[in-house]
Amino acid sequence: MTIAALIVAAGRGTRAGGSLPKQWRSLGDDPACPRVIDHTIHALRPFVDTILVVHHTDDLKHTANLHDVTCVEGGDSRSASVKAGLAALSDRDIQQVLIHDAARALVPAQVIQDVIAALAHSNGAAPALPVTDALWRGTDTVDGTQDRTDLWRAQTPQGFDFKSILRAHTDFTGSAADDVEVARAAQITVAITTGHEDNFKITHADDFFRAERILAQRTQLQKDTSPMDIRLGNGYDVHRFGAGDHVWICGVKVPHTRTLQGHSDADVGMHALTDAIYGALAMGDIGQHFPPSDMKWKGAASDIFLRHAIDLARSKGYDLGNCDVTLVCEHPKIGPHADAMRQTLADIMSVDIARVSVKATTSERLGFTGREEGIASLATATLIKP
After folding, report:
1. Do 53 and 75 have their domain in common?
2. Which end of the chain has a smaller Cβ tally under 10 Å, C or N?
3. What is the pLDDT at residue 226?
4. Torsion of CA 120, 122, 124, 125, to 10 degrees
5. Are 285 and 275 contacting, i.e. CB atoms less than 8 angstroms apart?
6. What are phi and psi of 130, to 5 degrees?
7. Residue 240 φ/ψ, nearest 5 degrees
8. What is the tens place of the pLDDT at every residue in 196-206?
9. CATH of residue 298
10. Dist. CA 379–CA 327, nearest whole Å
């Protein structure tokens, strides 16, 4: 089952104040999630296979440092933006889609899991909270009351069978408050799942203070209830030489008389490190997350894989303690490039260079590396959950 997340981030958010639309503003002090939208992506990433962000035409510059996501321009209304996002996903093999407001940055994992679980028996599912306050009608004075029985406060992500919601949006005219309204117009049954008070939509200036308090409470709760969890993972990779004039090693282009062959860019050092992180998480290897049978990864830059691995680790509460990459080859010589490799890996993983080691050794002319038929790499990664 392939699941996509479509994040709606094309609004202007003027009620929140500030010089930027709210989704691009800072929230909290986590360097891995500096902005509202970064928290949103971080919350959804562990549960989906692909993420698409629909943005305003004026916000293209803000999408530049969104990693491992697809970005498309939205329309002049929420429903138009969602339609644009669905159209951009239509050429992929997507079975289900979660449509989520970028401004709901603190959605708990359980809310997302419940929506996905409900899609097993319904073509639509969305979280909500029952209305518990008394409801009045009126302008300046109370003219009447409203029964709150069976009334709900809608939230996102709103999940759907992809083909069903794509048809619904294609046929829909006018504007809609959310995607449940579009789905109901197409006779799609939408199951109600349990929402959460933390899953509120940042709308006004004071909502940023509320979100900051929730983040601080989560951090403190994690410190109070979670003993330190240390994970160690190992990775190993090999690539053979072929015709060429350079090799990619740990994200650095190194001139050489030959090149490394592989389905992606054959970055043997980064592949080993990526597998070490997956190994520490007990979550397989690169081939399981990025199958070589999928041609969209043909020639892909390996920083995509490493970012996915470290983002996955952080989504589970871990950060990198340190890592050590050993390259086994006769040529090219690694020493002159080792510091550049360390810095590149540190930048990709958003850690200090002091936590990253890159070194090399030879095999004393023994074996395939000694015969200069290819390069091998070993890596170790330590993940720490405070």
Report:
1. yes
2. N
3. 62
4. -70
5. yes
6. -65, 145
7. -85, 160
8. 999 999 999 99
9. 3.30.1330.50
10. 9
